[in-house]
């Protein structure tokens, strides 16, 4: 599978000028963050749960081999089968083999970012199996031959007009702007796909080692139909989704819904434990779990291990000013936003994804809202370090940093220049206190004024602050 280099800077320029996209992103900024804040405010123990979730994830990662083996044992015990996949190619081949064994011509799919990661749909189509996305957002994107731009709201970059246009074009129906009518239209089109599919493929929010169960959480119910109606159910997920017990799973479910959509709980929380038993009224005859590594085991014990705690809630991107300005497609691959800026360089290489960890204001909001306290800015800095070490960063940036380092090694000269620069900018800005243009700063001043420094330099303020502390200490 060829992975193209994400053209973040070029894509961002296009996104900023896209009126329709900016309208859609405005809906994001006014939606998820406020709902999350309200949900958290109603839960006094939320911060305590975050600590517990972080610690539990750390424990699980430290004993990942044990819990994965326990998970496989219990899946097998209940009549299922686990397929281990080192990379995307092995995962695709395993799923295709299952489909061919079932003589499947059509498969229904519940939303799965992992299937996007391994380009599963394209692979199945190339081998004579037609995948049908059943999540409404994913279904719309499939009709448009488009890709998700968000983890939990894959079509968030679209507006109602976009959906109306594609439904009318692909379904051959009259155009309507009534959301309820469009929803009903999608139901009617998908119903026959649910009934006729030979194989159902879903992702998994968590894999429970204690019982060998997988769980998916949805608000549409398409996941239930995808995994219960076909005769074969395939789960494609990654090794970092395992949790020790059902009780542990409920901890993450309490955090996931509140962090993602601001709900107390998602509408459907569906556990699968093996194929149907004799007493079951419905369910698949076969149950398969494809566990994908794809470089994740290499993250254990490194500066990026904390990324394995991610529960894919999307809170980081919902609150990110960069994502909120350019959307998910600008990131150029499957995982957008701050979490993608950390995960993507690992999965496709820092040489291909170097712009992503640099696409951050480092405001720290992503870390502050993460339900499992992932230090995303810290890990983005680590990627910047590796990019610099490999001489992959832009020449101008490296030259500027080299010039800065020459002064930084000479403290007296650095302080003198800092004072001179501060005074010069104050003088140039005049009474307004800002500059509309400045040589070598067009990347900033082309879009906004540059505020002039106020007060003394950092070193002057630090010295003054330390002096005040000593003075107060002497008075006690």
Automatic annotation (TrEMBL):
UniProtKB keywords: 4Fe-4S, Iron, Iron-sulfur, Metal-binding
Spans annotated as Disordered: 457-476
Classification via Pfam families: Fer4_8, LUD_dom
One BP term from GO: lactate metabolic process
Keyword Metal-binding in annotation: yes
UniProt KW Iron-sulfur keyword: yes
Alphabetized GO MF terms: 4 iron, 4 sulfur cluster binding; metal ion binding
Domain of life per record: Bacteria
Stored InterPro entries: 4Fe4S_Fe-S-bd, 4Fe4S_Fe_S_CS, FTHF_cligase-like_sf, LUD_dom, LutB/LldF, NagB/RpiA_transferase-like
Annotated protein name in UniProt: Iron-sulfur cluster-binding protein
Organism in which the protein naturally occurs: Motiliproteus coralliicola
